[in-house]
Amino acid sequence: MKQEKFHGREVEHLGIAKEFDKKVRGTHFYKTLNLYLACTYAERTMEGENASSQEQIIAFQYLIDNGMVWSLQGWFGRTATSLIKKGVCEKAKK
Fold first, then answer.
1. Mean pLDDT within 1-26
2. Considering only Cβ atoms within 10 Å of each terminal Cβ, which end of the chain, N or C, has fewer?
């Protein structure tokens, strides 16, 4: 798998299409997220303080999928855009 830098840590691309859905959207972690938890894991604050890079990426994908990432403070949108461009996250499904 291809590696990318994310907040100074190496993360692997999670794949594409069906594999991505299974590895990200199909995880128990993704299914239990809500807006608050996704934000804390994306920022690594509060409950998400000890989030792994994988959890942080899944949180970003959750925020991208529900469209909220574009309504939060600018850092969220800029980071999401960068993750999408690098292929670490996907655009929201229609």
1. 57
2. C
Asked whether 48 and 37 are in contact (CB, 8 A), the reply is yes
CA 8 to chain centre: 15
Question: Which of the pair, 19 or 93, is modelled with greater confidence?
Answer: 93
In whole angstroms, give the CA distance from residue 22 to residue 24.
6
Give pTM, 2 decimals. Answer: 0.78
Instruction: Give the C-alpha separation, 3 to 12, whole Å.
Output: 4
C-alpha of 13 from chain center = 11
More confident residue, 74 or 18: 74
Instruction: Provide the H-helix boundaries in 15-52.
Output: 17-20, 28-32, 35-43
